[in-house]
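Task 17 of the worksheet. Students: predict the tertiary structure of the chain below and write it out as structure tokens. Keep your answer in the requested format; marks are given for formatting as well as content.
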Amino acid sequence: MDDRVGHRDPRVPEQRRPGSTEEPAMLRFDVLGPVRARRGDERLATGSPQQRALLAALLLREGRTATAAELIDALWGEESPSQALAAVRTYASRLRKVLDPGVLVSESGGYAVRGLAEGSFDLAVAQEWAAEAEKARNAGDLSHAREVLNRTLGLWDGEALAGVPGPYAEAQRVRLEEWRLGLLESRLDMDLEQGCHAEAVSELTALTAAYPLRERLRELLMLALYRSGRQAEALAVYADTRRLLAEELGVDPRAGLRLLQRRILQADPELAEPSAPAAEPAVVRVRPAQLPATVPDFTGRSAFVRELSEVLAGAGDGTGAGGRVMAVSALAGIGGVGKTTLAVHVAHQARPAFPDGQLYVDLQGAGPRSAEPETVLGSFLRALGTADSAIPDSLEERAALYRSVLDGRRVLVLLDNAKDAAQIRPLLPGTEGCAALVTSRVRMVDLAGAHLVDLDVMSPEEALSLFTRIVGEERVAAERKAALDVVAACGFLPLAIRIAASRLAARRTWTVSVLAAKLADERRRLDELQAGDLAVKATFELGYGALEPAQARAFRLLGLADGPDTSLAAAAAVLDLPVEDTEDLLESLVDTSLLESAAPGRYRFHDLVRLYARACADRDEPPGERDTALSRLLDFYLATAAGVYTIERPGDRTVVHLEPTSYRGLSFGERTQALDWLFAEAQCLLACARQQQSGSGLRRAVDLLWAAKDLAESGANAKQYEWAATALRDAAQDAADVRAESRARTALSNVHLAAGRYSEADDEARRAIELATAAHDATPVSWAATDRGIIALGQGRYEEAEKFLTTARDGYRADGNRPGEANALCNLSRLYERMNRPGDAVTLARQGVDIYQQLGLTLRLANGRYALGVALISAGRLSDGLVQLSDALEMFGSNRQRLWEGTTHFRIAQLHLADRRPAQAAQHAEQALAIGFIGGDLIRGSVLTALGRSLHALGQSDRARACWHEALSLLERSGAPEAAEVRRLLAPLDAS
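Model answer:
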């Protein structure tokens, strides 16, 4: 069968193309599932199965008349009843009564369906969309083709013509199913072309189990596995296929499958890259449109707009001045002069000259951490349709691929806020028909061939026009002289004019004269404008010197905090002010452009401004006040995170043992709000903890990690959490603070354990127990004992595991920490399940779940249900176990615990295996591999073992062998006892 989109499709009566406005009561017909007729949202009664068979036969006859004899043969074949003709007439009469007039017509002794509205017949829509997908694929637009095919396949609602009897319906069912599978194979083929091989493995595994003799699916699975780095499994799929075809059909695999196997064995480098029909195999032609929105009140700059537009137009049509193959225009000027605004405006006007797309990036050249060219190139290549797997590592290779991808295209690249020429040279297209616009605070005199533009302040006329467009014609016309005074006081700087005009526009009680009077006083001018030239230190100093003391203090102290931005509540803590007063201060700083409003209620410094603010704090702020401000911020985060912990874990006494705080935190009305805060503040919170590596804040910083442990367990912020914990552990060790060190090591142990780094986790937990015991700090002992028990359990040291977990349980009980006790019970349940004591395992897990339910816990209840589900599986109660694991899966998802989601998928796969449902087991195992899981290599080995069992049960023994070999390597490296079972599974396969 042809593997492209354009499969020969079943034809239906010619219809108008879908997409026009539908009438509210349009008549609709479905055959890609149960045969149905609807009028608007109303389901029409289509009668008995034979009557629906008649309707289906008429719908599928291309609008041609079907004779009575043809309909009788379609419904009954050679075994028609004696009253068949009368029955056909009765069915037709009944259908005519429920359908619109003129739809079912009688002619020449037969019947036909005519006059269907566009978009009213699902099969016709599917054919239209399939044709559209084929056209898009032939044009190289694989992204659009995939999207259309997905919509097409979504029209199926189960088996086509479901429940319709008769030989004609059966033949059509087979034909429609073959067409659907062909479309599905085409979409999967394009998935692989676009680099989505890892995502396709799970779907292809399930499909090959459902359609074991369909060789094209096997071929796609082999390719997906190979590109996912699973070569042994890919070859195993071929071996399974060859054996199955020989046993079932007595034939060899087709030539394409045999060729793919040889290419995999030879490690053909072309197999590692998608082979799209476009000139560049690794790239799908897409049209990026990344330009920021242009400002609606763009004003003036007509000479610059005309000059730049002419350069870009010449590049777009290939007539660039001086014979340049590619135009580069570099805009330079002071901060606030409107470089980005002008560049974006010109770029939008030039879009028609660059039909293949527009790229944009803020290079952050004014800050200390400007964007790396290789990072930008990676982003650009992805935007141009290059798969991640096809993007090389080095700067030189990325730049070369970037230029190759742009060859033959007309693309505009806007490089905003560049640091210097060296930063942007690798980002220039260098090909005819493309162009680059660059903005920077420095003149790019060393950028060969660039068209340089120096942007100055506005003319008085342009400045007044901008002011008028923001404030309104009526207010300015009444006070024109005052308006001229305002823009003159702003120095005709666009940013200053915009801030002044915006303030006036927001204050309806002010007149223009009031604003002019405020700005007339030079001592207060910057206070009123709250703006300055952000590119020059002298301008910063001028703006800072003009601030009120409260504003200057806020500017200094807010700059001390690490993190990407600051919330209003966190800023209030730093400043020790009410939120309302803090907001007034921060908004006034925003007006000066010394601070940016990142989002409602969030503020950030430009990088240079932050550095300047810290320099001001070092110069003007007493050391004690700097430390006190950061201490209040740490208190705020610790108190709020502890509140989130309490909401998540009612009854957990861990928060009682945290360091006391002097500054209060936020309160939340319900759990979702609390979790939203924690994950939204994750980077700022962890940055704050990491910043407190000395002095009185060290212990509180460590306890902040304890209170925010959900950030580590979710997997989303695990790396940043680990960095903070490592820094604080080392700081505590240097300070000889055994209490802080033991708690930091406990946090690190938890991170290592989740990642499957058992040796590192055990070392940290062992040392944590020693230090906590010396410090008479019982809480870390219970936490670390839990980790050591889980590690021993995973490594098959069951006696040690029982000792550690019992210690943890007793410690939690002594502290009155019921959630901790429940956690220990659930872990003991898992131990007894491993020790073949299913009854004890179920009992302990139920005790844990009961405690969680009594306390109203959610995330912890998910852990309890997970443990109970595993215990029930070991007791042979598979259906009950599936209920518990399904509930746990949903809870983990709602609590954003992705790694636990993947781990639960693995357990569900094991359950399906035990219940002899290998296809479902394979699908869940593949989902676990795609999502990730708690436990690192050890659990990956177990997942691969389960996947291998599933594949072996499906007859794919060679792929199963590949999975088991990889699992054995991982389990042996982890020292897991499960390795022995994998060796037993492999023995008969390796011997054959």
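Marker's comment: The chain has 45 helices and 14 strands. Residues 1-23, 276-283, 319-325, 531-539 have pLDDT under 50 and may be disordered.
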